[in-house]
Every structure is written in structure tokens, then in C-alpha cells.
Specification:
Elements (H helix, E strand, L loop, with lengths): L8 H30 L5 H18 L6 H22 L6
Helix pairs in contact: 1-2, 2-3
């Protein structure tokens, strides 16, 4: 019979909370940077949308010998990411 280690629930919850905190810290730092640049508060979702738009744009213009279909797909992704970003950032706050 195998020995199974059962971790107490509070310990596991603390580990998960710490891991979530560590993974969200760079996102929060980037959100603070975007807030300073845009001169308005930026939340986590908006930060992820801005990152997606930047990544898509980078992949669309990166000077690598991509196939034309792949370049077109990256360009379409970049346009869609910018549209999503604009929709979210141009919304009026409900506060």
C-alpha cells in the first residue's frame, strides 16, 4: 500500500495564496506603470489587453521569414487586439 501525504487545508491555502501573489506582482507593477503613462487608473484586465496588443503588434512586424498566411494572421490578431484594447480603455468609468 502506498503512503499518501495529506496536506492540511490551511497550509495548502497559504501556498496557493502566496503563489498567486507572486505571479500577480509583475502584473501590478506593469499596471502602475501604465497608469502613470496614461494618467488614469489601469486595472489588471486592461493591463493584459495592453500586453496582448503589444505582443500581437510585435509578432506582426517582426522581420522574420514568416509565411504570408502567418503574417496575415498575426496582423489580424494585432488589429483585433487593438480594437479590444480601445473598446475597454475608452469606456467611461461607472463610478
Amino acid at each position: 500500500m502506498e503512503k499518501q501525504l495529506i496536506l492540511p487545508a490551511p497550509w495548502m491555502a497559504a501556498v496557493v495564496a502566496k503563489a498567486a501573489e507572486l505571479t500577480n506582482k509583475p502584473l501590478k507593477m506593469l499596471a502602475n506603470y501604465y497608469s502613470q503613462v496614461l494618467e488614469r487608473p489601469v486595472d489588471g484586465r486592461e493591463t493584459r489587453l495592453l500586453l496582448e496588443a503589444q505582443a500581437a503588434f510585435f509578432l506582426a512586424i517582426m522581420p522574420v521569414g514568416y509565411h504570408l498566411a502567418l503574417r496575415t494572421a498575426c496582423l489580424a490578431w494585432a488589429v483585433w487586439a487593438v480594437v479590444k484594447c480601445r473598446r475597454r480603455l475608452c469606456q467611461q468609468p461607472t463610478d
